[in-house]
Structure formats: structure tokens, C-alpha cells
From TrEMBL:
SUPFAM superfamilies: Dehydroquinate synthase-like
Keyword flag Oxidoreductase: yes
Alcohol dehydrogenase iron-type/glycerol dehydrogenase GldA domain residues: 8-173
Origin species: Malaciobacter marinus
Domain Fe-containing alcohol dehydrogenase-like C-terminal: 188-375
Gene Ontology terms: cellular component: cytosol
Gene3D superfamilies recorded: 3.40.50.1970, Dehydroquinate synthase-like - alpha domain
A GO MF label: butanol dehydrogenase (NAD+) activity
Keyword Oxidoreductase in annotation: yes
Record key words, sorted: Oxidoreductase
Name of the protein described by the UniProt record: NADP-dependent alcohol dehydrogenase
Pfam families per record: ADH_Fe_C (PF25137), Fe-ADH (PF00465)
Similarity-based family: Belongs to the iron-containing alcohol dehydrogenase family.
Length: 379
């Protein structure tokens, strides 16, 4: 076992914690508050932010899309440069946070910041970021990953940078009360797949990671089983906490990772505008079936320790599908309006990006990707 781990993001968890940002952001910093479609003005978050920033100079930028685009965030970068903004405060979910991470780097870069996404440049500096999380799902509030899209080319790409870690993240589960069932279900499944990308690979001797991953899985299973209680604070608190822990990359310490489900899902989002979590739900079960020989031992461990199923990996996968569907997420591409060019589109994108040998063993080839998509499209 060998790893290096560093996570500098401070966490403030609980109802009413927004007030803490008054002391977390330097008083002499000019702040840009970034948000999405305006729900923060309905759930009370905006008013709490305004109160907490009453001694700061601040301005705002709204309209960040689900699946944020560089086209939108580049407009925000123009404001940052023109107004001399010192600090970015992202108020929302993963899309707002990822868009703000891109914004923080793009605002201090002289070229086209898509360079960070296509790998032609690395982030050398970025404005500091703070987060107020109002939607649980991605874990972006305390990791160094940025995922954004480009409309003009139907691309969704990602990059890692230590400059992208937020300085702090306020996690207030009370704001989840205004979320739709779709958003809550998406968050649960997103977290489930985040854990799976780091766990459902090879068997290992890292007891801490396996034990913690299985504990997080069990928490999500409990929340799915108690879906009728999703409007209670205890349910929302636990979902928000699990989602955060699922992707702060502590689970990745000392183990191999997969991420092929995410990379395929990103293309489904880019080409067909599927919600991120929904793009994962239609891929993971079928990827497990396609790659069963390589993943059978870890899948069996998962089945026994999480679902209580032994010696039947197909039953384990079906149980996973049932869980996804129980919170409203289909597990087949046939549930969506997907044309017959989906394999061609994904293959074309993967060839362009150089994604030819994915997975923990580098064995998820273009042929395997086609098989996975065909499984998902089968009646």
C-alpha cells in the first residue's frame, strides 16, 4: 500500500452555518457570488449569504446551467477581470461548483481556458473559491476535480488541479427541502457510482478503504429503502454527508480506480443532455456485466457485505438496478430519446480524446464500450 493524500478544504456542516463565511472570507476581498437558476432566492440561501457578506463588497453572477458550459463561465470571467474580483463564492450544487472552479482558473489565464480541459495546459494559479452547498451529489465541494462542457463541440471534459480545492465548504442540509425528487434520486445514485469507481475494481488488502466504502454503500441502501422519508432532515443530512465522503478521494487511497462509467456517461450528457447521474445509472450495471470476469471477485465481496447476496453476481447487479430504479433512475438507455448514432458518437469522442484503454486494467476498449451501450439499449 502506498499513497499521498491532501485535502485542504474546511467543512462547516449543519443548519445555519452560512453565517461562518463572514469570517472565512477576508474582509478586504471583493467577492463574486455564483449561482444557478435562482433557486437560492427561493430557499433562503441568497438572503443568508447577503447577510453574511454585509461587511464585504460583493456582486453576483447567476444562470450557471446544469452541466456548466465554458461559454457561460467565460462571461463570468470577463466580469471577474473587469471588476477586480478577489474571491469566488459558489452557491448551489455540483454544476455551480465545477463552473466556479473553471472560472477561478480561467480568470487568471491569458489564453483559452479550454486548454485545461484538453490537456494542453495545466492550471498554474486560480482565485480562491468558497462553496455553499445546497444540493448533495457530486462531492465537488471538497475535491480538486473540475468537469465542464463546451456547447460548440458537444464535449464534456474534466481536469484535476490542486488549485481547484475550495478553501471551505458550507454544507447545510436544510436547503435540500426544496429539491425535487429527481434531484434527490440523482444525488443518491451519483454517490453510489462515485464509490463504485473506487471500490468495484480489484480485490485488495486496504481494509480501511473497503470497510469505509461498504459503510457508505450501506448508508445509501438505507436511504433508498427509506425513500418515503426523503423529506425529513435526518434523511437529507445523511445523503449530504455520504455524498461528500464518496468523492473527497479518501476512498482512492492505495487502491486502483476505474472511472470508465463516468467517461462514457460524460459523452451521453454531452450528446444527449442526460442528467449526470442518469448517464451513470444506464452504464454501470451493464459495464459490470461486460467486465464481469475482471470484476467478479470484488463484485462478490460487494454483494455479500452490502446486499447480503452470496455466489450470484447477476443477482447483485439486478439488486443494484432495482435500487437505482426505486429512487426514479432508469437503468436502460431505452428510457430516453437516444438515436442509433450513440455508439458512433461515443467512439468518435473517445478517439478524439485518446480514451482507448479505460478501466483499472486498461481493458475497457472501444469494442467493450460498444458492447456496454448495446446492453443498455437492448429491450
Amino acid at each position: 500500500m502506498e499513497f499521498s493524500y491532501h485535502n485542504p478544504t474546511g467543512i462547516e456542516f449543519g443548519k445555519g452555518k452560512i453565517k461562518e463565511i463572514a469570517n472565512l472570507i477576508p474582509k478586504d476581498n471583493k467577492v463574486l457570488v455564483v449561482y444557478g437558476g435562482g433557486s437560492i432566492k427561493k430557499n433562503g440561501a441568497y438572503d443568508q449569504v447577503a447577510e453574511a457578506l454585509k461587511d464585504h463588497e460583493w456582486l453576483e453572477f447567476g444562470g450557471v446551467e446544469v452541466n456548466p458550459t465554458v461559454e457561460t463561465m467565460n462571461k463570468a470571467a470577463q466580469i471577474v477581470k473587469a471588476e477586480g474580483v478577489d474571491f469566488i463564492l459558489a452557491v448551489g450544487g455540483g454544476s455551480v461548483i465545477d463552473g466556479s472552479k473553471y472560472l477561478a482558473a480561467a480568470s487568471l489565464y491569458d489564453g483559452d481556458a479550454w486548454d485545461f480541459l484538453d490537456g494542453t495546459a495545466e492550471v498554474q494559479k486560480a482565485l480562491p473559491i468558497g462553496v455553499i452547498l445546497t444540493l448533495a451529489a457530486t462531492g465537488s465541494e471538497s475535491n480538486n476535480l473540475t468537469v465542464v462542457s463546451r456547447k460548440t463541440t458537444d464535449e464534456k471534459r474534466m481536469y484535476f488541479s490542486d488549485h481547484s480545492y475550495p478553501k471551505f465548504a458550507v454544507l447545510d442540509p436544510s436547503f435540500m427541502g426544496t429539491l425535487s425528487d429527481r434531484q434527490l434520486g440523482n444525488g443518491l445514485v451519483d454517490a453510489f457510482v462515485h464509490i463504485s469507481e473506487q471500490y468495484l475494481t480489484k480485490t485488495n488488502d486496504v481494509l480501511v478503504n473497503d470497510g469505509y466504502a461498504e459503510t457508505l454503500y450501506k448508508g445509501l441502501v438505507t436511504l433508498a429503502q427509506k425513500w418515503d422519508e426523503r423529506r425529513t432532515l435526518w434523511w437529507q443530512e445523511n445523503l449530504m454527508y455520504i455524498c461528500n465522503q464518496a468523492l473527497n478521494f479518501q476512498l482512492a487511497n492505495g487502491v486502483c480506480q476505474d472511472w470508465s462509467t463516468h467517461l462514457i456517461g460524460h459523452e451521453l450528457t454531452a450528446f444527449y443532455n442526460l442528467d449526470h447521474a442518469r448517464s451513470l445509472a444506464v452504464i454501470l450495471p451493464h459495464l459490470l456485466r461486460e467486465m464481469i470476469e475482471e470484476k467478479q471477485e470484488k463484485l462478490a465481496q460487494f454483494g455479500k457485505n452490502v446486499f447480503g447476496i452470496e455466489n450470484d453476481n447477476e443477482a447483485v447487479i439486478k439488486k443494484m438496478e432495482e435500487l437505482f430504479e426505486s429512487v426514479g433512475l432508469p437503468t436502460k438507455l431505452t428510457a430516453y430519446e437516444i438515436d442509433d448514432k450513440v455508439i458512433e458518437n461515443v467512439h468518435g469522442a473517445f478517439k478524439s480524446h485518446g480514451y482507448l484503454e479505460l478501466g483499472e486494467n486498461g481493458t475497457v476498449t472501444l469494442e467493450k464500450v460498444a458492447n456496454i451501450l448495446n446492453r443498455s439499449m437492448a429491450a
